[in-house]
Amino acid sequence: MDRVSVLEQEIADLRKVLHEKETELYQIKNGWVMRQLTTPVEPERQNYNNSGVQYSGNLPKWAIERYSRQILLPDIGVAGQEKLCKARVLVVGAGGLGCPASVYLAGAGVGEIGIVDYDTVDVTNIHRQILHYERDEHVSKAESAAQTLRSINSRIKVTPYSIQLDSTNAMQVAANYDIILDCSDNVPTRYLLNDLSVMLKIPLISGSALQMEGQLTIYGYRANNNPKEMNGNYTGPCYRCVFPTPPPPEAVGSCSTNGVAGPIPGVIGALQALEAIKYIVGHSHSGLLVERMLLFDGDDTTFRTVKLRPRNSECAACSDTPSICQLLDYETVCKTQAKEKKKEDTLKSERRKLEKDKRMSGQSYYGFRVKADGTKKWVQDVPKSERRLGPRCKSELCAKGTSRKCSMITETDRMDMFRHFWNDLDWREKKAHVRSLVDTVPAKRRRLKHKGDVSRKGDSKRYHLRSGGERMPVCRVMFLNTLGIKEAMVRSWLSSSDRPKTPKKALKALNVNTFIDRIPKMAPNCKICSKNKEYIAIDNVTNLHQLYNLYVRECAVQGSVPASRKTFSKVITTRNVKMKNVCECITQNVWENQMHVGYSV
Amino acid sequence: MPALKINVHFGGGAELLFDKIKKREVELPAVDKYLPECEKKGWTIRELLVWIKENLLRERPELFLQGESVRPGILVLINDTDWELYGELDYELQPSDTITFISTLHGG
User: Fold this and answer.
1) What is the mean pLDDT of residues B48-55?
2) Quick one: pLDDT band at residue A66, thresholds 50, 70, 90?
3) Do B13 and A210 touch (CB under 8 A)?
4) In what residue span(s) does the THIF-type NAD/FAD binding fold domain sit (chain A) (predicted)?
5) Between chains, do B72 and A244 touch, taking CB under 8 Å as contact?
6) CB spacing of A252 vs B84 below 8 angstroms
7) Measured distance CA(A126)–CA(A136) in Å, rounded
8) B60:A383 CB<8 A
9) DSSP letter (8 states) at residue A140
10) Can you tell me the distance from the alpha carbon of A590 to that of A587, in angstroms, rounded to the nearest whole number?
11) Of B13, B63, B107, which is closest to A255 when you measure between CB atoms?
12) How far is A51 from A114, CA to CA, in rounded Å?
């Protein structure tokens, strides 16, 4: 094992050295390229782009050679390549779509690529996010992607933004770009990018992928700066023209819960890059996916292009008199978090209780996964439908016979019984209700064929429904469907009796609470923070570990049993006690200011 | 009026509410027999949604319908064209039309 760790360390060191040398080479090369390009051939025909890299009217020799295979295409040509080298593209999301899209853009020599992602690389991302490698785990996705893009094409400018794009910073980031590629994975960011693209009058190439399907289209296309367009006033629809209202949050799936096949975002991402290249070299809207949507189904490998509605002249975002003139708080508008919550541990028990309450009141809920051996897996994501009133008994036997009175119960009675059962009774009362309506009698046997055999059936059940105070005998189907329950539930309720619940042991958290009450604390200095926050004021205690040790020592002196570390930290969190008197909102502000300096240069 | 044969397709995850079947060929009965209170002669999308809810939808209707229309985020296509261009709910179905319900994806 020693040899393994030594080798791992050596490899890590070598990688570091390699990275340093690569960066150095990249800088020297770039400087050299700049100098080479600034020696003017025909100064009056020089063009500049924002990255400071200059391209003369004629492409440099290396560029002609390097991009020769795409320059050969009549659609691109030398003129198209010049446009590509001057283009600036913002890729939002360095995930399944962002990675393949930016690879092709970098390969095609797009002059400047900005890549935005707040997240870090996780090992579960690598199957589809092809710019990240195993060694990049826990590294910022934007940084990791930028590094790989630089190694693909060292002649272009790549800017990583490791930030969460929101209404406060989006405008500043996007103002430097000509096209936005929407490779994000959530609804708020999609609406944010749409409004942003409409305000900046730049197109939004929007891709999405989930499970085995992908979708792609271009929103907010404007013809006015393309000389090839027949109609210079043409404007394509925006996202809000097609989807004016955000979908309900429970209807939105994500790759981490619903899964995705790696090549699906690969296909869509590559096509996003193609559309971006076509737009840059100046294709007209009839050749681009404007007012059309591509649907890719990986299940049967079919591509379909469907026609979308044109721009809505009363759209809230892109009409001539828009009602949305500045960026909004999209997380509130869409009732969804843009950032996926990774830590769910603290919420698990609450979630379990919530789902249990829903289940017991007959609503739809999420159940546990069940393993092949029938045991529960503690992951609660299996959707279960709500309780419903089933169809009534339609049996002719019930109608003809005199013993059962199924046909006498009206549909409104059934609805009332169903509502009473699920809305008015608690779980214990439900059980009692069912027990009062079902009688158990010795097994009846009618079939002559088995006469004399010992029946394996333990008993027969007689079902009743209570209507207007009267207990009416009904058939099994009528009974179960009216209450919206299954037979197994009745059987288990009849066989078990209610046991009183064993009272839970007193929480150890109690002595943590008294400990926290005792120790010296102080109020926060910061005025922005909520008032109910407190800070620990003990010398030598700067972290939770030290505080816990102090607590354990105190418990030993008192002779009481200390609570576990987990319980301890939970209590600390619920009491809102913090360790250092440095406010989080201050540190965050400092960090954001640094970020602004970082990308406004 | 004879029965009306049309194709109904689901995609983008909407098929999960319909037994995971993406493509169906359905035969609609005469509208005045199926919905006697409806005073129309032909099927429109509005009645089709009612028929789908009662005959095809397996679970969680709130993830497909909202009021008498589909919920936000579902794209309805009539012969591969956005239904807005055909008058949305009031479009009268023709024999062998293809009606597609696509749930928009947001993953990436």
Assistant:
1) 90
2) very high
3) yes
4) 67-316
5) yes
6) no
7) 10
8) yes
9) B
10) 5
11) B107
12) 11
* Distance separating alpha carbons of residues A241 and A251, to the nearest angstrom: 20
Q: Which two tokens stand for residue A263?
A: 């090549």
Asked whether the beta carbons of A371 and A382 are under 8 A apart, the reply is: no
Cβ contacts of A94 on chain B, cutoff 8 Å: none
Instruction: Count H helices and E strands in chain B, helices first.
Output: 2, 7
Look at chain B and report how many structural domains it folds into: 1
Can you tell me which residue has the tokens 């994501």?
A381
3-state secondary structure of A115: strand
Q: Is the ipTM of this complex over 0.95?
A: no
Instruction: Give CA separation, A456 vs A453, A459, A475, A487, A491, in Å.
Output: 9, 9, 22, 18, 16
Size of chain B in residues: 108
**Rounded mean pLDDT of A106-124?**
92
CATH code for the domain in which residue B75 is found: 3.10.20.30
Closest-CA residue of chain A to B21: A299
Q: What is the overall mean pLDDT for chain A?
A: 83
User: Could you tell me if A304 and A295 are in contact, meaning their C-beta atoms sit under 8 angstroms apart?
Assistant: yes
> What SS3 state is found at A219?
strand
| Bridge partners, B100 (sequence order) | B9, B77
Residue B107 with chain A: CB contacts under 8 Å: 96, 185, 208-210, 253-255, 258, 260, 265
User: Which of A472, A402, A108 lies closest to A272, judged by CA?
Assistant: A108
**Type of residue at A353:** K
The closest of A98, A95, A293 to A213, measured between CA atoms, is A293
- Of B63, B81, B107, nearest to A307 by CB-CB distance is B81
- Which of left, alpha, beta for A335 (phi over 0: left; psi -120 to 50: alpha)? left
> Which tokens in the block code for residue A505?
């042991």
Q: SS3 for A60-121, per residue?
A: CHHHHHHCHHHHCCCCCHHHHHHHHHHCEEEEECCCCCHHHHHHHHHHCCCCEEEEECCCEC
Contact A257, A381 (CB under 8 A): yes
| Backbone torsions φ then ψ of A5, nearest 5 degrees | -65, -35
With an 8 Å Cβ cutoff, are B104 and A243 in contact?
yes
Which of A548, A537, A543 shows the shortest CA–CA distance to A515? Answer: A548
At A298, list the tokens. Answer: 């990986």
Per-residue model confidence as pLDDT tens digits over B72-106? 999 999 999 999 999 888 999 999 999 999 999 98
Closest to A206 in 3D by CA, of A228, A191, A227: A191
Where in chain A are the domains? 1-39, 87-333, 348-384, 396-443+458-495, 509-600
Q: Could you tell me if A441 and A459 are in contact, meaning their C-beta atoms sit under 8 angstroms apart?
A: yes
CA-CA distance, A224 to A232, in Å (whole number)?
5
B64 is in which domain, residue-wise? 4-103
Length of chain A: 601
Identify the band that residue A529 occupies on the pLDDT scale cut at 50, 70 and 90. Answer: low
Q: Is residue B108 part of a domain?
A: no
Amino acid at A48: Y
Confirm or reject contact between B102 and chain A (CB < 8 A). Answer: yes
Burial class (CB in 10 A: 0-12, 13-18, 19+), B14: buried
CB atoms within 10 A of CB B74: 22
The upper half-sphere exposure of residue A516, i.e. CA atoms within 13 Å in the direction of its Cβ, equals: 21
Under an 8 A CB cutoff, do A385 and B59 touch? yes
- Assess contact for B13 and B103: CB atoms under 8 A: yes
CA distance A216 to A292: 9
Domain A87-333 has CATH 3.40.50.11260: no
- Nearest-Cα distance to chain B for A229, in Å, is 24
> According to DSSP H, which parts of chain B are helical?
31-34, 45-55
What is the pLDDT averaged over residues A557-577? 84
Structure tokens at A251: 């209807």
